[in-house]
Amino acid sequence: MLLFLILPIINTVSTSAGGLGEAITTAETVNAILTSFFAAYLATLITFFFGVPLAYTLARHEFKGKSLVDAVIDLPILIPHNAAGISLLMLLGPRSLIGGGFSSLGVSFVDTIFGVVAAMVFVSSPFMIRSAEEAFKSVNPELEKVARSLGASTFNAFKNVTFPLAFRGILTGCLLTWARSISEFGAVVVLAYYPKTAAVHLYDVFVNWGLSAAAPITALLIILAVTIFTVIKLITAKPLKPSFS
Amino acid sequence: MSIKIENLSKKWVNFAIKNINLEINRGEYFVILGPTGAGKTLLLELIAGFYTPDTGKIIIDTVDVTSFPPEKRRLGYVPQNYMLFPHMTVEENVEFGLKMHGFSRLKRKKMVDEVLELAGLSKLRSRLPETLSGGEKQKTALARALIIKPKILLLDEPLSALDVNTQKKLREELKKLHENLNITTIHVTHNHSEAYFLAEKLAIMKDGTIIQKGSPDEVFYKPKNNFVASFVGFENLFDGKIVERHGNLVVVDIGNIKVEAVTSLEAEKCTLGVRPDDIIILESPSKSSMRNLLKGKISNFISMGSIVNLTVKVKEKSFMVLITKRSFEEMNLQKGKEVYIAFKASSVHVM
User: Fold this and answer.
1) Which residue in the set A142, A148, A242 is minimally distant from B70, CB to CB?
2) Nearest CA-CA distance, residue A102 and chain B, Å
3) Which residue of B has its CA nearest to A145?
4) Which residues 80-139 in chain B show a CB within 8 A of chain A?
5) How near does any CA of chain B get to the CA of A170, in Å?
6) Predicted confidence band of residue B1 (pLDDT cuts 50, 70, 90)
7) pLDDT tier at B320 (50, 70, 90 boundaries)?
8) Pairing with A70, which of A160, B155, B312, B346 sits 20 to 30 Å away (CA)?
9) Has residue A239 got a pLDDT over 70?
10) pLDDT bucket at B160, cuts 50 / 70 / 90
11) Which of A145, A151, A165 sits opposite B101 (nearest CB)?
């Protein structure tokens, strides 16, 4: 199994090494990679701010309709991503109620960075929510009670006790969300073909110029993703003591 | 501070705290004793403010705090297993409450230094909880709770996670601490000897209600009903009928067995309770001041280290008797051997 996972990557990188120099210096490729990283960063930020409170609610509270909420969170993993793109287009397109409302405020989702981010948020949010939920579940709620008895408000108990203890799990959620966002193609290509992300650009090159032109870009993307992911993993693997004040 | 709990009730899905009434005086060490599942911890958590009761009031001194959130009650809470913040050092754990109450950095440092010194934790100040022993964790949890100068100290099974020797040591330290600080304390436990040793007043709790409250002697030696009697160690309980009275000395028939007891109970029907450690074993009948001497046969025995738990069958009734292993061996006791059991009339509790 491991071989099946690693061989295509090794094969692509080794056979395309010669064209890497050209791929790095092509402005279109560099712009597409930067667009992907920036949009994935924004998507992770948005998912963090809205997903973490939802994850905390799911981990700590029982309420009517919780199983329905659970199912909704997993939906983006279940449906094909081009279908997700079409659904988002129908919801956020200029002729829809919500999309029209945003258009009147000067925010369009079709073929803009907002569209790219929206598609990324949609497909990657389950990774953030589930990671954070598990992280919160692993923190004993009794610790919050003790913090409250010592004078901490609900928010301060969360900020000083629960969040630091769940931090590593949440960080993992951020990494997975970012990585999933970078790799998204199906939803992005339907909602926002432009500005081209790395995945869309790669598809574009492959369709128009063939495999030999797409391979070095593929190798570059793989190297970048693995390098960044490894660096972040190494940083977060160090003993971590978040500050609390 | 004193605390008054009036008609406190709270319903959960499968459990309810029912109509609790307690009055705990300023500086009193009050123990709530009960078996697992009695609702002791939930009662403590209601007092701490983690849940809002369905009915009733919690009054601290003269202030009704029933609707106050935990952070506004200023109660010191030490939960089971201490729940030290695992990502904070001993010093940071102890300092936490002061930070939350807005004390300046300088003041915090001074107070933490003092408390760590008093608790003998100074050398451990930079250690994380996972590196501490059970006793050290307990001291840290107490220091963390006490540094905010709480109005009342709430202790939930504070000694249950410790080995027997540490339990005994820390039990004495708790007593000393209470004598020094004179802080009103509510201590929840299922351990009889812990309750008896520490309590100035205690309450027995079962199925979400208080069954009996009073001084330790009142509860342990004058239990109100069969549950309390059996819970506090009256393992020999028999229903009977008073058939003779000679002032306070009565003769009770417990089914072809006559037992003499001292009581002022006026009712005819009653229940007798005798503690296993109040009964002695004799190889042959001999005259003594003990009013009750019964012939029986050993039907079972269980060795519990230095103590042996004997079951002696007297006619149809079984009496539990505790004797030392040494006596058991010296008397050459064994299953089926005929013996005599003897106990004082004043050792018999009549309910």
Assistant:
1) A148
2) 41
3) B50
4) 81, 83, 85-88, 96-97, 99-101
5) 16
6) confident
7) very high
8) A160
9) no
10) confident
11) A151
Residue B125 is given by DSSP the state T
Structure token digits, residue A49: 């701010």
Residue A148 to residue B69, Cβ atoms within 8 A = yes
Q: Which domains does chain A have, with CATH numbers?
A: 18-237 (1.10.3720.10)
Q: B102: distance to nearest CA of chain A, Å?
A: 9
Q: How far apart (Å, rounded) are the C-alpha atoms in residues B56 and B89?
A: 39
- Residues sharing a CB contact under 8 Å with residue A78, sequence separation 6 or more, in sequence order: none
Whole-angstrom Cα distance, residue B259 to residue B242?
A: 9
Q: Does the beta-carbon distance from A150 to B144 stay under 8 Å?
A: yes
Question: Does the structure show a pLDDT above 80 at A177?
Answer: yes
Answer whether B74 sits within 8 Å of A151, measured CB to CB: yes
More confident residue, A49 or A9: A49
Torsion of CA B88, B89, B91, B93, to 10 degrees: 40
Task: Test A164 with B79 for CB contact under 8 angstroms.
Answer: no
Fold assignment, B3-228: Rossmann fold (3.40.50)
* Cβ contact, residue pair A145, B50, below 8 Å: yes
**Token representation of residue A5:** 């996972």
Query: pLDDT value at position A245?
Result: 39
Is A150–B79 a contact, with Cβ atoms under 8 angstroms apart? no
User: CA-to-CA distance for B303 and A116, rounded, in angstroms?
Assistant: 75
| Chain B CA closest to residue A152 | B100
pLDDT band of A243, cuts 50, 70, 90 = very low
Between CA A81 and CA A154 the distance in angstroms is 38
Give the residue-averaged pLDDT of A3-9. 89
Count A/B contacts: CB-CB distance under 8 Å: 65
The identity of residue B275, as a single letter, is R
Average pLDDT of every residue of chain B: 93
| Domain layout of chain B by residue ranges | 3-228, 234-350
Q: How far is B169 from chain A (nearest CA, A)?
A: 25
Does the CB of B50 have a partner CB in chain A at under 8 Å?
yes
Q: State how far residue B155 is from chain A, nearest Cα, in angstroms.
A: 12
Instruction: Report the length, in residues, of chain B.
Output: 351
- In the CATH scheme, what is the code of domain B234-350? 2.40.50.100
CB-based burial label for A89 (10 Å; 0-12, 13-18, 19+): buried
Average confidence (pLDDT) over A200-208:
94
- Strand ranges of the sheet holding B63-64, from the earlier edge strand across to the other edge: B16-24, B3-11, B55-60, B63-64
How does pLDDT run across A72-102, given as a tens digit for each residue? 999 999 999 999 999 999 999 988 999 999 9
